[in-house]
Design a protein that fits this description.
310 residues, alpha/beta, Rossmann fold, 2 domains, 5-stranded parallel sheet, 4-stranded parallel sheet, 9 strands, 41% helix, globular, binds phosphoric acid mono(formamide)ester, binds norvaline
Length: 310
Amino acid sequence: MSALRHFVDLWPLEPETLRAILDDAHRRKAARVGWPRGRADPDAPAAGRTLAMIFEKNSTRTRFSFDAAMRQLGGASIISTGADMQIGRGETIEDTARVLSRMVDAVMLRTNGHDTVERFAAVADVPVINGLTGASHPCQILADLMALEERCGPVAGKTIAWVGDGNNVCASYLHAAGKFGFRLNIASPADYSPALIDLARAVEAGGQISLTEDPQEAVRGADCVVADTWVSMGDVDYDERVSALTPYQVDDDLMDLAGPRAAFLHCLPAHRGEEVTDEVLDGPRSLVWDAAENRIHAQKSILAWCFGAI
Ligand code: CP
Ligand code: NVA
């Protein structure tokens, strides 16, 4: 690993590093219960530091949680869309990285192509964080696992069932499985199964992974069921996706196969009535609102790690 602490994907990071980030997030969250959300943590590990954020795609949670996270760490942030910047008119991503490296202390990017974040990180002199690309969404998984641990205890040894499109969020679950020691059952239609490279990375990291086209088989006995939209930002084959993925809707009957204590996670935004029913999303097994809040806590610890405070 380079001296710079980039958080571009989970798969290149050591399990101990990821565990330390998640433990720090649990500690920081517990230490500020009842506090106003704008008050800084006493150690303020980002004091005097600025995070730049560049969005090529829409965002609610990532945008607000990173901004709130920097405030709680004692730092500041600057947010822009790619379209408003000169990259929107053809300035190279490398030149953008060189310039922002002289102005801020870290950069978070949400981009269409994963290679955009990788190219930025290859040139940047400051830590770079992936705030979602078409290929992965590593920040989301730490927030999800944090919510699951709050409900069920340590995630090591648990079984998580992914139901639906083998997309960017699924890829980061694959990258996380071996690192955190959970079993991952994936149910997806053959045309929308995860990329082979992500399956290979999961196996290389010691992940226990099973693949099936049968959602009932995947969720039986699972501690947690995870769903995501059938049509991600940038996908164009809406009708084909909805047709192939309709049998993968998570409803109470499917959750019942997992068991009464099983949790439900979804990165949001949800498409109610498509990949998940209202009864599951708003029901007692849903951890989605906790996970959404945890985007702040998990990303504070990602940032603290990037800044060398973990
Ligand atoms: N889950 C997530 O990343 O949400 P946003 O797209 O709103 O940032
Ligand atoms: N898979 C979804 C996640 C959104 C947070 C997408 O990429 O659009």
